[in-house]
Structure to design on (296 residues):
C-alpha cells in the first residue's frame, strides 16, 4: 500500500439522490491500494437516503466526510464545494454511481510522482457499466500525453468525470468546475471544460488500463442528447473566446459531437433531435452532413 503523506489524494464525490449506487461507489474508493485519501462526499440536496448511507461509511472510516447542500445546486457546485475543503495536493473526482479498480489511484499517483510538476492531470481508460455493475463495453483507447490541448478540443479523451487524477494547483488555477451551465439547462460538459482549462497550462499523462468504471443508465445526465449538445456548444464557445487559435480544432470537436449525437438520436428514434442536429450539420458543417448521407 502506498501512503506517503505528501501524496494525499482528496477524492471528491458529488451525490444527488444516489442511494442506489453510493454505497458501492464508496466501497470501491475505500478499497484503493493507495491509502492516503481524504474522501469528501457532497450531498447536493438529496431527497433520498444518500446522506444516511454516507454517514455509515464515515462512521466506519475516518477518511470519509459528508458535506450537505440544503438545495440542489448542480454537479459543478457540488464538486467545487468539495474542492474548497480539499487538503490534498492531488484531487480525484468520482461520480456517485461510478467505480474504481483498487489500483487506480496508486497507478496514477506513481505516474504523477515520476512525471514532475509539468503534468497536471493523469487519466485512465474506462469501461462502461450497466445497472448491475457489469461491463457492457470498453471506451476509447487514447494514448495522448504531453501537450494534449488540440486533441482535447476534438474529443474528451479523458473520457468522463471519474477518470482523472489532477493536481490541486491546476484545478484551482483553472477556476474549478463551471457552475454556470446548470442555470442554462446545459449541465454535462463541466468536466471537459475543466480539462481544457488545465491543458492550457499543464501537460497530461495516461495510464493505459481500464481502471475506471463509468455507469451508463437511461437516467444518466450523459444520455440527455439535447442537454449534452447544448453543454458542449457552450463550453466550446467559451474555449474559443479564450483561445481563438483553437477555432479549427474546436470546430472539428463540434462536428464529432454533433455526428455522434445525431447517430444516438437516430438509434433512439428521437425525431425532433434528429432534425435539429441534421439542420445544424447541413447549414453549419455541410461536409460532415454529406458523410451522414453517404455512410449511413
Amino acid at each position: 500500500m502506498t501512503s506517503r503523506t505528501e501524496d494525499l489524494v482528496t477524492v471528491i464525490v458529488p451525490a444527488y439522490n444516489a442511494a442506489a449506487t453510493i454505497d458501492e461507489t464508496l466501497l470501491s474508493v475505500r478499497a484503493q491500494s493507495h491509502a492516503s485519501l481524504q474522501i469528501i462526499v457532497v450531498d447536493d440536496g438529496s431527497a433520498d437516503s444518500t446522506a444516511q448511507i454516507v454517514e455509515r461509511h464515515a462512521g466506519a472510516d475516518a477518511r470519509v466526510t459528508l458535506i450537505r447542500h440544503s438545495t440542489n445546486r448542480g454537479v459543478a457546485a457540488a464538486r467545487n464545494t468539495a474542492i474548497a475543503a480539499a487538503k490534498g495536493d492531488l484531487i480525484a473526482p468520482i461520480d456517485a454511481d461510478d467505480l474504481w479498480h483498487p489500483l487506480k489511484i496508486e497507478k496514477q499517483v506513481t505516474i504523477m510522482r515520476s512525471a514532475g510538476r509539468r503534468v497536471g492531470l493523469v487519466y485512465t481508460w474506462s469501461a462502461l457499466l450497466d445497472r448491475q455493475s457489469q461491463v457492457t463495453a470498453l471506451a476509447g483507447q487514447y494514448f495522448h500525453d504531453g501537450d494534449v490541448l488540440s486533441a482535447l478540443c476534438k474529443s474528451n479523451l479523458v473520457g468522463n468525470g471519474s477518470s482523472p487524477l489532477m493536481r490541486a494547483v491546476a484545478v484551482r488555477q483553472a477556476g474549478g468546475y463551471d457552475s454556470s451551465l446548470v442555470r442554462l439547462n446545459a449541465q454535462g460538459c463541466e468536466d471537459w471544460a475543466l480539462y481544457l482549462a488545465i491543458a492550457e497550462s499543464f501537460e497530461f499523462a495516461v495510464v493505459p488500463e481500464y481502471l475506471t468504471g463509468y455507469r451508463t443508465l437511461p437516467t444518466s445526465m450523459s444520455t440527455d442528447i439535447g442537454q449534452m449538445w447544448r453543454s458542449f456548444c457552450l463550453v466550446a464557445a467559451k474555449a474559443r473566446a479564450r483561445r481563438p487559435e483553437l477555432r479549427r480544432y474546436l470546430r472539428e470537436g463540434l462536428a464529432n459531437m454533433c455526428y455522434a449525437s445525431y447517430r444516438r438520436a437516430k438509434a433512439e428514434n428521437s425525431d425532433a433531435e434528429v432534425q435539429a442536429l441534421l439542420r445544424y450539420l447541413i447549414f453549419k458543417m455541410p461536409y460532415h452532413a454529406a458523410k451522414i448521407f453517404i455512410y449511413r
Observations:
- The longest strand covers residues 203-215.
- Residues 247-267 form the longest helix (21 residues).
